[in-house]
Structure formats: C-alpha cells, structure tokens
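for ur thesis appendix - Nucleoside-diphosphate-sugar epimerase. copy paste whatever u need, i formatted it the way the template wanted (i think)
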Amino acid sequence: MKKVLILGVNGFIGHHLSKRILETTDWHVYGMDMSTDRITDVLENEAYKSRMHFFEGDITINKEWVEYHVKKCDVILPLVAIATPSTYVKQPLRVFELDFEANLPIVRSAAKYGKHLVFPSTSEVYGMCHDAEFDPENSELVCGPINKPRWIYSNAKQLMDRVIWGYGMEGLNFTLFRPFNWIGAGLDSIHTPKEGSSRVVTQFFGHIVRGENISLVDGGAQKRAFTDIDDGIDALMAIIANKDGAASGKIYNIGNPVNNYSIRELAGMMLELAHHYPEYAAGAKQVKIVETTSGAYYGAGYQDVQNRVPKITNTCEELNWAPTTSMADALKKIFDAYRGQVAQAQALMD
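the 3d part is after this line
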C-alpha cells in the first residue's frame, strides 16, 4: 500500500491523478495545495476519507510539513509550477523562484530520505530543437537569446532535470516525465477572459463560450502534439507503481504524436465541435478568427516553437503504455465537462 505525496494536488495533473489513485488502488494520497476547488468532490467523498489526507498550505511557507511528509511517503510528486507563457514573459523571476528554487529543497529531501521522486519536467526543455521528434536521450535542447525571457521556464526546468540526474548518480531513485500538451477538463479556468492567461485549448474554449474572437498568434501555423489527460494519467500510474523498478532513473516523454495539429487547425476543430452543442452554438456563431503578432499578444520577450512531437518508444515499451484518445474525443470530453458552466463564463464579458 503506497503512500503518495502530491504537492499541487489541486492543480490540473494533481486533481486528476489523486482521483485516479483513490478510484483504482488502495494507496493513500497526501496532498498539499493553496486551494481546493478542483478536489472538492474527492475531499467530500466518504469512500475516500480514510485515504485522502489534505493540508492547505504553500510549499514556500510550510517547509516543515513538506519535509515531514517526504520522509513519511513512498513516492513524491512535486507538481507546483507556473506553466503559462504570459507569466514567462512578464514575470520571469517569479517563474524561476517557484519552478526551480522552491522545488529544489523537495528534491534534496527526496534524496536524503531515499524516496522515489517523480518529477514533472516539460516538453519545453527541448526548446526550438530541430528534430522531427524529440528524443529524451539524444535530442539537443535549444533555447533562444537572453532577451527573450520566454525561455526562463525551459531553462529552469532543464536545470532541475540536470540536478535530479546528478542526484541520481549519487543514488536518488527518480523518474522525470515530460508532458506534451496534456488537455482536459480543469486545465485552467474557462472563466478567465484575459488573453494569454491560460493555455491554448482553455483560452479558445473560453472565447467560444463568450462569443469572443479567437486570436491566432503569428498566423497559428505552429503545431503541437496534444494528449488527453486520461492517457497521461495512465502513464503516471505506471511510473508510480514502478513494477520491477522499470521507471527508475528514466526520462519519459508522455504525449500523443498522432494528435499533432497546428493552432489554426485546433481553432477550426473547436469551432466546428461547438456548433453541435446547443449550449455553445450561439457563442460560436459570433466568433471570428483573427490574426495577431506574438509581440502584441504576449510581449516582446516571446519566441515560439514551430513543431513539438514526442518520441515515445521507451515510454510505451517500459511502461506497457500507449495513448489511445483521438483529438476529436479529447476535445469532446472537454466540451461535455463544461456544459453546466456556460452561463458563468458568458457573464465574464461584462
């Protein structure tokens, strides 16, 4: 019976993972976050109360609680991070302070107490790599100039990967996983109207619900490989189970190379889907697709990646895993999940 520590348990990955653990295993979840809006149903479920242990706190403040629970638990997932491009550009120091500095003591505690550290790297570490598919063992990690603060997230995550690898050379049991554009309900708030404040699928969805124009940055030709959250959680569960130590000392891309679409194609797919839902159709009819520049949308410090396709050979072979959810089905699940929230999101036009 594993004890799993999830820091950032109310986040996108954290709340989906904790729910899956409680539904399908006898493991205990010890979770910390600053809010509970995504995990309310889990916390209130009588069937889970003996195995769901939640503490409302902040990893930068409640350091003693964190260290105690790293020592107490078997598997450590520090999922607290800033992962929105507008913040990379506007507040780069905040990104470094949280994503690297605040997580470093947790990594050190995992090494100190001999725990299995499952750490969220990112597809962004590959930067502007020119490979047709990004290989966790061989691809070069290519970032832009210093005057483009967009790269501080990529650099902070890459440095953490290297530090964790270094601890691994001294005995730390670790697994690094790199999510490639995981999408699903609860990714960001659809109630946030400000452009650039959330990730692309949520951003477009919010605009459709509110009948606002969708802005394509630099024409929307840049492509991403999108991955349904449930496929991602399948892989994470295999990593946490770590049968025969297969995941120890490994780096895994977790993505779906089949779902590789341009941002322009994504906007078209979402608008087409919206017309099939009575709740969304009226808003969708008002939406126009317009073009803007990355400078106008994000700020002068932005640079984009044109293609980002994961090589998942080792992930599939070693974890006995494969992504199975098509792009159409992944988007449909999101549209289904928010059908009851349309009125609140529309009200944000005011």
